[in-house]
Amino acid sequence: MSKNFIEEIIEKDLESGKVTQIYTRFPPEPNGYLHIGHAKSLCINFGLAQKYGGKCNLRYDDTNPAKEDEEYVNSIQQDIEWLGFKWDKRLFASDYFDVMYNCAVKLINKGLAYVCDLTAEEIRQTRGNLTQKGEESPYRNRSVEENLLLFENMKNGVYADGEKVLRAKIDMASPNLNMRDPVIYRVLHATHHNTGDKWCIYPMYDFAHPIEDAYEGITHSICTLEFEDHRPLYDWVVNNCDFPDPKPQQIEFARLNVTNTIMSKRFLKRLVDEGKVMGWDDPRMPTLSGLRRRGYPAAALRDFCERIGVAKANSEVEMAYLESCVRDNLNQNASRVMAVLNPLEVVLTNVQEPEILQVENNPNAEQITYREVPFSNRIYIDQSDFAQVPPPKYHRLKPDGYVRLKGAYIIHCDEVVTDDEGNVTKLMCSVVPNSKSGSDTSGVKVKGVIQWVDANTAVDAEVRQLESLLVDATEEVTDFTERFNVNSMTVVNAKCEKSLLNAKVGETFQFMRIGYYVADRDSTPTKPVFNSIVGLKDSFKSKA
Ligand code: ATP
Ligand code: MG
């Protein structure tokens, strides 16, 4: 297997002795649920630590008090455990607010940070642009003593939000806008989910993140591409705050984007808040909790992340690729069962005694197991498996025709019962003697095999047919709610075999000839609820 560019960097660092053990981290902001994009980052960070005998921390990047919440902290943890990863330490960036504060004081003492009274708007206006240098702030040359005093006042709540900020003193003429005296601390009177009202100043991401990494001894700090331009500032902070070697190294990779879904937490939160979906774990959501409820196996997600690889250029991966990984997994692992979405009653006129058939669960399993399937004089087949006027080469049931019932017998259609309007309401059929699957000596040759459900013991089930969250955009739409697929969930009342009454929440099945389904937590003891996972046919065509 070829190495990706991050692995090459790591191997070089291990060989040169720059690091003796690698240490990575996964740093989510607890302001929403994790999504498929995070799975990619999780697989990279935890995967590298595993591969190279290193460690990986779960660190909540909770330096912004406004949108963070305990609910998110808990869901993130559950999702990571579900994906199958184990962190070394579980940490909160907010636990090192003191460390960050002391780093800021250190920078002030070195003459490398100053308190600035310009407003956010004035700072933006004096920042310049790609062709124009920035202007130095009139507060840039305050003395160390004055800065120390003002910064302490900021901490002590003397100023209102936005009244003063602490800025790094770097270079207003730098070609990199991030280096033009970036704000590193702001005044914000807000209650923090972890530190409560202890602080009324909060560090900015670009200042906090390198300190968190360095403080924890992270060797390789892997982030997405949009932070590439921030790397000089990352290095500046690490170097000027005097952290020991080996200093953490920031490495950027392309974020994962998937077609027909959206991974911005802001948008996902809107769908939840506006009641367009049933919650963060709605099975249509690209969140990990949504995918779990949708029946996507964790192993399939890891497999997907592995197969798409690690890239340095942004691109969009087709949802069909992920579905293909899911299908491969379920094909191997899901039990085959029978359900009928559009029932048509069939009376088997020559069946007297009910019978219990032994039907194979999964032909792909390492060990073949069987389950009991009742069979009697009334069954359901799907309306689509009967044609009164069949097209050529039609192999399913037709008037005076034969078809095999999966795992049971061959039946013959003797009579079609219709209502006043000519709609088929019932079929009168007979079982062909000696045609039982596995011991068929009837001599009748049939091409079609269909699924069926015993009507006398059938269980009613709610089946949710799910489709993509977003419809294809014909043009660039900025408001994603306009692309919300109003047909993304259709509820069908199905008949299914009795064994499904015992389906456990999260258990996955292949509804034979229909698709893959998972038992939902909305199931009750008398009525199971199933979500569609993926169809049987693979629509993904690899471009390679
Ligand atoms: P969002 O924009 O959805 O809020 P975020 O990047 O702000 O996402 P964080 O909680 O800060 O979310 O992300 C935690 C980690 O996951 C970060 O290292 C981030 O780079 C990574 N990550 C987030 N989205 C993706 C993605 N689509 N592909 C790969 N990595 C991602
Ligand atoms: Mg973020």
Strand order of the largest sheet: 12-25-26-27-23-24-13
Average pLDDT for all residues? 95
Number of helices: 12
CATH superfamily of the largest domain: Ribosomal Protein L25, Chain P
CATH class of the largest domain: Mainly Beta
- Strand percentage lies at 15-25%
CATH topology of the largest domain: Ribosomal Protein L25, Chain P
Structural class: alpha/beta
Stretches with pLDDT under 50, minimum 5 residues: none
Distance between the termini: 17 Å
Sheet with most strands: 7 strands, mixed
Radius of gyration: 31 Å
Number of E-type strands: 27
The percent range for helix content is 25-40%
Report the CATH architecture of the largest domain.
Beta Barrel
Distinct small molecules bound, one entry per kind: adenosine-5'-triphosphate, magnesium ion
Give the topology.
Blueprint: H1 5-16, E1 23-26, H2 36-51, E2 55-60, H3 70-83, E3 90-92, H4 97-109, E4 113-116, H5 120-125, H6 144-155, E5 165-168, E6 183-187, E7 201-203, H7 205-216, E8 220-224, H8 231-240, E9 249-253, E10 256-258, H9 265-273, H10 288-294, H11 298-308, E11 315-317, H12 319-333, E12 335-337, E13 339-340, E14 343-348, E15 355-360, E16 370-375, E17 378-382, E18 402-405, E19 410-418, E20 424-431, E21 449-450, E22 453-454, E23 459-466, E24 489-496, E25 508-511, E26 515-519, E27 529-535
Parallel strand pairs: 1-2, 2-3, 8-9, 10-11, 12-25, 14-20, 18-21, 23-27
Antiparallel strand pairs: 4-5, 5-6, 6-7, 13-24, 14-17, 15-16, 17-22, 18-19, 19-20, 23-24, 25-26, 26-27
The structure holds adenosine-5'-triphosphate and magnesium ion.
Adenosine-5'-triphosphate (ATP) binds next to helix 2 and strand 8.
